[in-house]
Design a protein that fits this description.
Layout lengths: L3 H9 L1 H29 L1 H7 L8 E6 L2 E6 L2 E14 L4 E13 L5 E13 L4 E5 L3 E4 L9 E4 L2 E5 L4 E4 L3 E5 L2 E5 L2 E4 L4 E4 L2 E6 L12 E6 L1 E4 L4 E10 L2 E11 L4 E11 L3 E11 L6 E12 L15 H5 L4 E11 L4 E13 L5 E12 L4 E12 L3 E11 L6 E3 L5 E4 L16
Antiparallel strand pairs: 1-3, 2-3, 3-4, 4-5, 5-6, 5-7, 6-9, 7-8, 8-11, 9-10, 10-13, 11-12, 12-15, 13-14, 14-17, 15-16, 16-18, 17-18, 18-19, 19-20, 20-21, 21-22, 22-23, 23-24, 24-25, 25-26, 26-27, 27-28, 27-29
Helix pairs in contact: 2-3
Amino acid sequence: MRTAPEARFWQGTPIVRSLLRLTFALALAVALLWGIELLRRQDPFLRTLAHIPPALQHLELYLERPTITMRDGARIMATLQLDALEIERNRIQWRARNLRQATFYDERGNRIGVAQANELLFNYPARRLHIMGNPTLTMYRHPFGTTPLTLQTAHVFWDLRLRRLKADLPVHIRWNEGYGTIQTLRWDFNAGTLQLGTGRLYISSTAFQEGAQPKRKVEIAYEFAVMHKDRLEVQNLRLRDGDTVATAERADVYERQQYALATGKLRLEDPRIDIEGGKLEVWYGENQKRARLQNQVRIRIKPRKTEPPPEGEPETELEQAKRYPIDATCDEIEYFYRRKVAYIRGNIKAVQQLANGRTRTLTASEAEYDQKNERLILRGKVVVDEPQRIYFETELAIVSLVEGEEKIETPKGAKGYLYTDEEEEETPPPNGKP
């Protein structure tokens, strides 16, 4: 048994004090670890972190079914609804699975489109979004009508910093009146422009016609198209409606004014007529429905295919004339396509080459063509000239174009010449008697 001085000696030794402190620290650490383990067992969030699969251990954040709002300052650019969002520890790559819906907004906060896709990849520092896995984009504002336009492609690239969306692979588009394919797409949110690369579209003819006419498919091909805020610009346009083909170097469509302007080597071809001009204007509003063609207008009316006359019967002059084309020029044609009436104005001249080298020329100041009644009305100084055969002038001529009933009426009379061959002087009979 130690004496009191010996006990005080051992208690006051520095070694003893250090051992006591170490023992206390170890006991405290064990207690803290045990407390953390108890907490881990009680807190479901910490229990989840303790069992993260190895494939997700490189992530900083994993969210299920989040809704993401993308902003430019105070203005909302888009909202994204996802099944899952994975953010890497370096925060560079954000990967999302199953984009249920992305909604895009314009500068005024109006919805301009929605999108769905299987996968998203977002580069956070560059602010670039890759929409992959057969994305589908639905646009509410587009140049093809008032119904939503759906676009499908393999990959869409969206630059949030520049506010531009593009697709460099073929894009299949569909809307209520038609469908088609375009090679590239550029959508600039800042400029408010949508650029469509070379494409081919098919539009129902019901978008252009009225009444219960048979439904047809109209094919539209172009090299480049840009949808501006106030108009649609198209370059090298080609339109095919059955056996009718129309082409233009450039066309601008103003949807708000319901007005279209086409310029540069305009041409329309079908089995019966070819038309050329330098400027075409179309007003397609509900109360307008008219088109005007100007600048060096040229028309060729092609010959009809006629049946030969019965054997032994001569071919009439009218049947002969149908076998030769008519070339006409004028300053302007204005066509009211609801009433099916065309007005032809300024320096009207029509020339037809006939058999045996003959030529027939018709000139007038103005004309009116009634398509429903198949009637052509010529006004002003009307002249019909067939050299060495007939020449006459009138102020008004009504030409019937009904098959089998072709005729010309001159209600105000006419004056002119009828050429005949002079008969040779008769030779007196041999006996001198008549």
